[in-house]
Design a protein that fits this description.
Radius of gyration: 19 Å
CATH class: Alpha Beta
Largest sheet: 6 strands, mixed
CATH topology: Rossmann fold
CATH architecture: 3-Layer(aba) Sandwich
Mean pLDDT: 90
Distance between the termini: 32 Å
Helix content: 25-40%
Structural class: alpha/beta
CATH superfamily: P-loop containing nucleotide triphosphate hydrolases
Order of helices and strands: EEEHEEHEHHHEHEHEEHHH
Number of strands: 10
Low-confidence stretches: none
Length: 265
């Protein structure tokens, strides 16, 4: 479902601030894979996700989604293949519009706009059913402005919007990093539920080592713009944080350097 081959990305080329963020990174996801991505500061995690999303083009290499070469495809066209939830709960939704209006926009993604009825009665009933499953009381607040929701409610809504039309690939960009631990756990549980129900191919970047181990069927660790570890199956199920740190040191020859991740132990 996702095939990344030998991609490179360098920012500020030729200046004192030149930085190579991706250095020959390669990764393949089969349909239904739920891959968590972790790495130290500047390892290339977010750059990898942004490269897949088309936020910027890579300098070299190729990116294929469901056998379609999207390497040179602009972000707005690439969006037809993707669902994405950002780190900032304020992104991914329209704050001044109602919950129902946001869901309607997500449901109409990629469709031509016409002059028909905005949101039908049947659509509202469907949205209420979906929101009821979130167990956050949002089904009784369909017309509430999204900007009035809490961070956790907003991330849950964004997750629902991102998966309303089953995407080829779901990108979760540290989507619980801005939430308190209790709310983060609830959003992660909801993520697991939605991914499993729809068999979504998912790439989740996280700074939390425990979350990276506990969620998904594969874990990759990045360093210096490349994939250094790719762990799945029984090995992942029995993995501990200390195991992960030891494996990283073994393959990279250096200690893991990310204060935020280490604090999540």
């Amino acid at each position: 479902m996702l095939n990344i081959q030998n991609i490179y990305k360098t920012f500020n080329i030729g200046t004192i601030n030149e930085k190579t963020a991706l250095n020959g990174a390669s990764l393949t996801l089969n349909e239904g894979d739920f891959v968590t991505v972790i790495g130290g500061n500047g390892a290339g995690k977010s750059t990898l996700l942004n490269a897949v999303a088309g936020t910027w083009f890579v300098d070299e290499g190729s990116i294929l989604i469901d056998n379609v070469d999207v390497t040179k495809m602009p972000e707005h066209k690439r969006a037809q293949f993707l669902g994405r939830v950002f780190q900032d709960p304020m992104m991914g939704t329209a704050a001044t519009m109602g919950i129902d209006e946001n869901l309607a926009l997500a449901a109409r993604r990629g469709q031509r706009r016409g002059l028909g009825t905005g949101i039908s009665k049947a659509e509202r009933e469907h949205y209420m059913e979906l929101l009821t499953e979130l167990d956050l009381g949002l089904e009784n607040r369909l017309t509430s402005k999204v900007g009035l929701l809490s961070g956790g409610q907003r991330q849950a809504l964004t997750l629902l919007m991102a998966t309303l039309k089953k995407p080829k690939l779901l990108l979760l960009d540290e989507h619980t990093a801005a939430l308190d631990p209790k709310t983060a756990a609830k959003v992660l549980a909801l993520s697991d539920k939605i991914v499993a129900e729809h068999n979504l191919t998912t790439l989740m970047v996280t700074h939390n080592m425990r979350d990276a181990i506990a969620h998904g069927n594969r874990l990759i660790m990045m360093n210096e713009g490349r994939v250094m570890l790719d762990i799945s199956g029984k090995e992942k199920k029995s993995l501990t944080v200390d195991d992960l740190l030891s494996k990283f040191e073994e393959v990279s020859g250096e200690e893991f350097a990310n204060d935020q991740a280490l604090l999540s132990k």
